[in-house]
Amino acid sequence: MNNRIPKAKRNKRVIIILYLLISSTILSACEGTVGRREIEDLGIVTAIGVDYVNDEVIVTLEVVNPLASSISAQASSTKTEGQKYVYPQGRGKTIKDAISNINLYFDKKIFLSHSNILVLGEEFAKRGTIDLMDFFIRDSQPREDMYIVVAKGARASDIIGVKAGLGRPTGTYLYDTLNNFSSNGKSINISIAEKYRYYYDVSNEPVIGLVQLKEVVRSDDELKKEEQTAKVLDVAGGAVLSRDRLVGYFDGDEMMGFNFIVGDFKRGTIVFRTPVEDKDKKGTIIGADGVFTSLDIVSAKTKREITVNDGKIHLTIDVKLKAGLNEINQALDVIDEEVMTRIEKACSDKVKELISTTLEKGQKEFKQDSFSIGVTVHQQHPKLWKEIATDWNNIFPEITYDVKVETTIVKIGLMNLPANLRRK
Amino acid sequence: MAIIFLSFLAIILFIIVVKGEAMISKDIEVNKAKMKKIFKGSSDLLLYAFDTSCNTKALVAYIECLVDRNGLYNDLVKPLIKDLKSPYEILKTVPIAGAREVYDMDTITKEMLVGSAVLFVDTLDTAYLFELGKWERRSIEEPGNERVIKGPKEGFVEDISVNKGLIRRRIRNPNLVFEDYIVGTQTNTNVSLVYLADRVNSSVLDEVRERLNKINVDAILDASYIEQIIKDSPKSLIPTVGYTEKPDVAAGKILEGRIAIISDVSPMVLTIPKIFIENFQTSEDYYTIPKYATYLRTIRIFSLLMAVTLPGILVALKTYHQEMLPTSLLMSMASGREGVPFTALVEALFMLIFLEIIKESSIRTPSSIGRAVTVVSGLVLGQTAVQAGLVGPIMVIAIAASGISEYIFASLKEMIVLYRFIILLLGGTLGLFGVICGIIIIITHLVSVRSFGVPYMYPIAPYDKEGMKDFIIRSPLDKMTYLPRNISNKKERMRNE
């Protein structure tokens, strides 16, 4: 094959190819080439906060100082003391503008790809977010799976910088706390990508996570008296949005109901009053008023069914729970089948109550469908949905519903008889 | 005119003289002088004249160190002095197998050079050759390059006849053929093709014969001379000729229908054709449990990928794709890089060249100074380089891991070292895009290379179900019922025809 090309021409080609290779190597190794950035020039951002004050966007970032962070204390040979995290803030007309303005006084190039948390200030959320959020899905740096939370009753700049837990950056701390969602069911973690999925969904108003500043008592002997409270971030609850505008909040218990309704409840603890003794049947259950039992939910399955009677929409929520007995504060004979049935029923009632409270709040207070019930209608009655889709937010507060909960206790813990059984 | 005539005469005279030189004279003094002339008075030519029992003079000529002196004296000289009745009964008197009569000096010269003693007798115009070759050779040891825990530990030595024996002992079969060649115009080295006549692929065999006959070099000092000359695509870095120092490995390859090339004075035995997966196979794979061998092969393939691509991928991630690193790793990298004056690419190149220097010096260091010196100096230098801020610690780990992985493949050394540089440059200039491009180019090359007509990536490309039984998964021995399709001509392994 090579013989077809004259040798001189071949040599020329080789020289040109070599020239291109070498020059591209040298050129692309130069500073300032597109896409090239050295690690040590980056300001690694772990959390982003966005506020809207006086018609200006304020972006607060949490940037890690790798030399001072504990992870790399051994790796670095030159141990420079310094702040572990710094919190540069920038103002601008848009988010990109604000972030670029940070670099006017901050030496490291802002690098957003490692941020897992986006905190929206309450005012910003109330104003409506969508017009300013485009940056986070259009730009290549921010992650799509970044959790998005609303700062309840606070600005984002107040939230960013709170280091509770084990003293890690706010971003990591908040991210891991939100990931606990699957073990308590009292919060929700929604990423940017998911929020936008909801945004295009006609029948669904998004509910996203929230974060709240709280003060807790620190029990540490070494601290002075005035320092004995600490700021922590609490993620219980959810922020209810209407399209992109904050309209209200669900609290922790309401979020449990919410997660049952949308079928997202993974694990969590249900606390309810221990059933009390019947008057005619003595000796079975001796729970007294004001005593609680906790059940650990092992799995929860939700089925939603829409039935239409005379044009009236009726929703049936059918929840099947599997639970483990976790804690009984009264001496109950848990081997007794009667006792177990009563406990299961009490648990079902509690879950029913949780669900109804949340649904009621959604219907009465927010008057909008935050539970994607419209989606269920669309799936089960597509013809009907076509007619009512545009008017859904007016129809939703009117629909009737009933809740069926069935609890099965699959584990009773390590004890058959509680230690205080003899007290009777 | 006269000049032409004179030169013509000179040529004729010259021919006569030369012809006379090649003849054996009846006078042993003349023969003695001729021998000295042929060997240019070299001091290792020994000439020993004595009187036989039938009162004729005899002259033994041989080359020192190539001939067994004890045998020479006891079996040749002693019977001639004591028992010879007539000069015409020499072959009857001397009890040496392989003795023969020769008539010209050329044969004598050639035979003396491979270890024969020659006997001239007064009044006879013929000479007698006695094969008494014996020389100092290394004893059979375990080869240092291919150590095994389980399995035979014998290794080839620098002697072709011993090596032939080592193979023959493993394949006791009349179909095993040794085909001798003499290669090298100055060194006249013995080279032997070894194959099983009923299993060898005849087209491969013809190809090898043709290439061997075409060899035109002055010297063969090691089998790798032959390897370089006969290998396919000589510009390629990919080894298309296998080599081994272990007779059990060579026997295994011959049994699969391959051809082995033994060269005198080399303990390396070449095997032809070679396919890609042979780089990952060791003799021990066949001596241990199949599942464990499979596991080891997976590790080897992984480490090849690591050896070639790890520095390149790391540099690409460090300079272009920081978002792909886990956050905590990014932070420790960033803190390690703090204060390093070079870009990641320069840092990696620096470490890589440094590694090559350490490797080279640790091989060449005299053992009396000790390997410890180079290892310690390497460690100390590596660590102080990090402390001095010349390189980041993660880069040292990556280069070291890549360097260690390379040692698994003695045969792929050249390819790994050079491709690693290319991938590193591509990764440092074009990011992961460059790394992927480099890998694609390497794979394209691997697929297009052939070893004596056999596709290098067999049995993946072309796919062969039977060949796959000894690919990454090493099947149990009784399940491997067929021979590799392209390498051998006979399909079934068990049947004997």
Brief overview:
With 424 residues, chain A is α/β, with parallel strands linked by helices. Helix content of chain A is 31%, strand content 28%.
Overall description:
The complex is a heterodimer of chains A (424) and B (497). With 424 residues, chain A is an alpha/beta fold. Chain A has two domains: 217 residues, no CATH class; 164 residues, GMP Synthetase, Chain A, domain 3 (2-Layer Sandwich). Helix content of chain A is 31%, strand content 28%. Chain A is built from 13 helices and 15 strands. In chain A, the strands form two sheets. In chain A, strands 1, 2, 3, 4, 5, 6, 7, 8, 9, 10 and 11 form an eleven-stranded mixed β-sheet that branches. Chain A has a four-stranded mixed β-sheet with strand order 12-13-14-15, with helices on both faces. In chain A, helix 9 crosses helix 10 and helix 11 crosses helix 12. The N and C termini of chain A lie far apart (100 Å). About 2% of the residues of chain A have low confidence. Chain B is of the alpha+beta class and 497 residues long. Chain B folds into three domains: 109 residues, no CATH class; 115 residues, no CATH class; 165 residues, no CATH class. Chain B is 46% helix and 12% strand. Chain B contains 16 helices and twelve strands. In chain B, strand 1 and strand 2 form a beta hairpin. The longest helix of chain B has 30 residues. The model of chain B has no long low-confidence stretch (mean pLDDT 86). The interface between A and B is medium-sized, with 29 and 31 residues.
Provide the descriptors you would attach to this structure in a database record.
heterodimer; A: 424 residues; alpha/beta; GMP Synthetase, Chain A, domain 3; 2 domains; eleven-stranded mixed β-sheet; four-stranded mixed β-sheet; 13 helices; 28% strand; B: 497 residues; alpha+beta; 3 domains; five-stranded antiparallel β-sheet; 16 helices; 12 strands; elongated
Which two chains touch over the largest interface?
A-B, 29 and 31 residues
Shape call of chain B:
elongated
**What gyration radius of chain B follows from the Cα positions, in whole Å?**
30 Å
Record field, number of beta strands of chain B: 12
Number of domains of chain A: 2
| Strand order, largest beta sheet of chain B | 1-2-4-5-3
Helix proportion of chain B: 40-55%
Q: How do the SSEs of chain B run, as a string of H and E?
A: HHEEHHEHEEHEEHHEHEEHHHHHHHEE
User: How would a textbook summarize the main sheet of chain B?
Assistant: 5 strands, antiparallel
How far the N terminus sits from the C terminus of chain B, by CA atoms, comes to 71 Å
Poorly predicted residue ranges of chain B? none
Number of domains of chain B: 3
Strand percent estimate of chain B:
5-15%
Structural class of chain B: alpha+beta
